[in-house]
Design goal:
Elements lengths: L2 H31 L1 H25 L3 H6 L14 H8 L7 H30 L6 H10 L5 H15 L1 H4 L3 H24 L3 H9 L4 H12 L1 H16 L3 H7 L8 H8 L7 H11 L1 H9 L1 H9 L6
Helix pairs in contact: 2-15, 4-15, 5-9, 5-12, 5-14, 6-9, 9-12, 9-13, 12-17, 14-15
Length: 310
């Protein structure tokens, strides 16, 4: 068999494989965009939206109406008030969420930027740099994802107490804890994304005299912006909605407790203040909504990155 015939056979196989891939993609796209798929999407959207809408409507109803009837009775006897929001934003110290809102911001922003900064550099080291034992170390980092979060709480808490880390900065234990728990997943995701970058780009930059710092800052970071934004959204939302780590590493100190801890305490022994919880819940989702919609275009690009190869 000649070299030309082998090449023609390989090209035919690739053409058949590409055609099969395109056919499967077209079939999947058709299944998702037909009327049945659209109907299923609408049903899921309604089921997801109705409870949220009911919660929002309850937050605007008077306390007596909330405790006496369901939110759907609003349409037969409409009554709106902002008293619940006034109480959770400017009421007594036990129900005022403004300080806890600030605490959650102070906790979430560094707890997102710190692991993201470390993970980007670690992903570059795992995917671009050549060094002995790289694959073995990466497997070790990957397996850390299966370690339950609860197993590390007490050892970390003892470490922070023994080193008086909280005396340096009140929020330092919370920042470190969230960063440690986020690093394995962050490194894994960013490494996979960075591995999709063509090696020709890196080799061309190296031939032109670019060092690793230049390659990292001028080539990798701009290309990885969608993946970075996607993980930043996930990490920010996880930290913002976290209760376990916030309660554990705040040590019961109200000065540094997050908003979720205040909402949990607001429930009361018998859940008698849940009219305030409805307003507090919507106060707590303002920042996550702003973060998601401001980074939405990067988020979608990050999810779709690598899904189609041409």
């Amino acid at each position: 068999m000649t070299a030309s015939s082998i090449t023609e056979a390989d090209e035919a196989d690739r053409a058949m494989g590409g055609g099969a891939d395109r056919s499967a993609a077209a079939t999947l796209k058709g299944a998702l965009t037909n009327r049945i798929g659209s109907a299923v999407a609408i049903v899921i959207a309604v089921l997801w939206t109705v409870p949220t809408f009911g919660l929002f409507l309850s937050s605007l109803r008077p306390e007596s109406d909330i405790k006496g009837s369901g939110w759907w009775t609003f349409f037969s006897d409409p009554a709106l008030t902002l008293d619940n929001y006034r109480q959770v934003l400017g009421g007594s110290s036990s129900t005022n969420l403004s300080q806890y809102f600030t605490n959650s911001l102070v906790i979430a922003v560094p707890s997102t930027l710190l692991p993201l900064s470390l993970a980007v550099m670690a992903a570059y080291a795992f995917s671009v740099l050549e060094w002995r034992g790289r694959n073995l170390v990466f497997v070790g980092v990957f397996t850390l994802q299966i370690v339950p979060l609860q197993m590390a709480l007490i050892p970390l808490l003892r470490f922070f107490n023994d080193t008086d880390a909280g005396s340096v900065l009140l929020f330092l234990p919370l920042w470190l804890a969230h960063s440690i728990f986020a690093l394995p997943l962050a490194i894994f995701l960013l490494h996979n994304f960075m591995s999709e970058v063509p090696r020709d780009l890196i080799e061309a930059a190296r031939i032109d005299g670019a060092g690793h710092v230049t390659v990292f800052l001028r080539i990798m970071l701009p290309l990885m912006l969608p993946a970075i934004a996607s993980f930043a959204i996930f990490q920010f939302l996880w930290v913002w909605n976290d209760l376990l780590v916030g309660l554990t590493f705040s040590g019961g100190n109200r000065i540094i407790q997050p908003l979720t801890a205040a909402l949990a305490a607001m429930t009361g022994d018998r859940g008698q203040d849940w009219h305030l919880l409805t307003a507090g819940a919507f106060v707590s989702i303002v920042i996550p909504l702003v973060v998601f919609f401001s980074l939405q275009r990067y988020f979608v690009r990050g999810l779709l990155a690598g899904s189609v190869k041409g």
